[in-house]
Write a structure and sequence with these properties.
This protein is an all-alpha fold and 508 residues long. It has 22 helices and no strands.
């Protein structure tokens, strides 16, 4: 029997793998609080600045299904080291970008090389640890992926306020180089069986065109006045045709790039639906709260980071216990409790107003952390529970792919709804102000200290703020009902939920 491969220094190798994952997951949220600054510096609207988030997420989602093919072709270690070095390079290029077009191009490339990093890290950790310690190794990885998205806004805010926004990307360069060097040296000589697998080109091309075109429609629709624009109509048709080709091809091809046949399993379907919609709603919250704090309440990027940070306290405290004891309970109950808590925090935010204090914002974030702590591990275990042993890797990859897409689409839809509803409320609130009305004239003169034009400008600013606040409340009211619906969806799954041997517990 061959001796299993072990790195020369297991702890150092684990640090290298965890650092790379931390860096990659951190980049999904580090730019959130910096968006207003990036928008100002590059001369674009706040709405357009969210493309910095969506371009990364879409590219990452598209490259995820390629992980299996690339691993079999080049080997896990080579692929991990290459992706980590390329991530550092594209991060540097993001930092030196002089226009929004350049930044979006390099963010898309950064997302493309980020896709395979998490699945390979998970696989390498399982491979280098003895079976008895694998649970601990994956619990550590889960902890890293819980802390990173929460550290992102704090770190991003502090860097943006004290240095400049490009440094949120430059910090990846030394981390990426260090992590890749450590892993390359520690895993040198690891035996790997390489193949020359066939790639499903039709599936890949139709996926890139379909998803890419749909994201362009969601991102550009508002600026282009939706279906009054020929560009949006044509792009929508291209997206619909490409997605239809993708679905038909993947369901009939012998070796599809995305195995859609997995949806024949009841728990996989119910669990994936809950995972994708739950993560999409969670992603919307993570994007909208920092934007609202800066745009409406006048917070700096640093203080927006501090206000959102309490989200991470309960997940860090509970992750280990959820991983260890959750399987002793009905996982549907834990997931439903998670959705109930996250829904309740959304309804709390739906009653926020412009004078809400720091404490109330932070305490709602803290409570939402309980929902986050109970969300990922139970939902992931449920969706993997009825897959065959040889389907688990594909199932985990497919759910991650859809979850990443869900986050990207929700970012575009949420910012569109917030801006759109703000405009509607602005129009409704200004209907009652008439320059020829003596009461309005008196109020404008008083506000402008005798200058009605200045008074009009001041009151317009106040109405704009109120419009955005009402729209914020409406969006969170809707998100609250999404979570209520998910409490019902998760009960479509049927026990037992014992993960098959080889299924990775918990993780993002």
């Amino acid at each position: 029997m061959t001796t299993p491969f072990r790195p020369r220094n297991l702890a150092l190798c684990t640090i290298g793998l965890s650092l790379a994952t931390f860096m990659q997951v951190l980049d999904t949220t580090i730019a959130n609080v910096s968006l207003p600054t990036i928008a100002g510096n590059l001369g674009v609207s706040n709405d357009q600045s969210t493309w910095v988030i969506t371009s990364f997420a879409v590219s990452m989602a598209i490259s995820l299904p390629l992980t299996g093919f690339l691993t079999r072709r080049f080997g896990e270690v080579k692929l991990f080291v290459a992706c980590t070095l390329l991530f550092a390079l594209t991060s540097f290029l993001c930092g030196v970008s002089q226009s929004m077009g350049m930044l979006l191009l390099f963010r898309a490339l950064q997302g493309a090389v980020a896709g395979p990093m998490y699945p390979i890290t998970q696989s390498l950790l399982i491979g280098i640890y003895p079976p008895a310690k694998r649970g601990m190794a994956l619990a550590l990885l889960s902890m890293v992926t819980v802390v990173a998205p929460i550290a992102g806004p704090i770190l991003g805010g502090w860097i943006t306020d004290n240095y400049s926004w490009p440094w949120i990307f430059f910090i990846n360069v030394p981390i990426g180089i260090f992590a890749s060097m450590v892993v390359a040296s520690q895993l040198r000589g690891k035996p790997e069986q390489l193949e020359r697998p066939k790639i499903d080109y039709v599936g890949l091309v139709s996926l890139i065109i379909g998803v890419g075109a749909l994201q362009i429609v969601l991102d550009k629709g508002n600026d282009a006045d939706w279906f009054n624009s020929n560009f949006i109509i044509v792009t929508s048709i291209i997206s619909a045709i490409a997605i239809a080709v993708f679905l038909i091809w993947e369901l009939t091809d012998k070796d599809p790039i995305v195995n859609l046949r997995l949806f024949r399993h009841r728990n996989f379907t119910a669990g994936t639906l809950a995972m994708v919609l739950g993560y999409a709603a969670f992603f919307s919250i993570a994007l909208l709260v920092p934007l609202w704090l800066q745009q409406n309440l006048g917070y700096t990027a640093t203080w927006a980071g501090y206000a959102t940070a309490p989200l991470g306290i309960i997940p860090v405290l509970l992750t280990f216990f959820v991983g260890k004891y959750a399987t002793r309970m009905d996982l549907r109950l834990l997931a439903a409790l998670s959705f109930m808590v996250m829904g309740a925090t959304c309804f709390m935010r739906a009653s926020f107003y412009l004078e809400v204090d720091f404490y109330h914002v932070a305490i709602v974030q803290l409570w939402q952390g309980l929902g986050v702590a109970l969300f990922f591990m139970p939902t992931l275990t449920i969706l993997l529970s009825d897959l065959q042993q040889n389907e688990i890797a594909a199932g985990s990859g497919l759910s991650t792919f859809l979850r990443t897409l869900g986050g990207s689409f929700s970012a575009s839809i949420t910012t569109f709804l917030w801006n759109r509803r703000a405009v509607v409320h602005h129009e409704q609130l200004t209907e009652h102000i008439n320059i020829y009305n003596p009461a309005s004239q008196a109020a404008l003169t008083q506000l402008g200290h005798g200058d009605t034009q200045l008074g009009g400008s001041i009151i317009n600013g106040m109405i704009t703020q109120q419009g955005y606040q009402i729209a914020f409340n409406e969006v969170f009211h809707a998100l609250g009902w999404v979570f209520v619906g998910l409490m019902l969806v998760i009960w479509l799954a049927r026990p037992p939920f014992t993960a098959k041997a080889g299924a990775a517990p918990g993780g993002h």
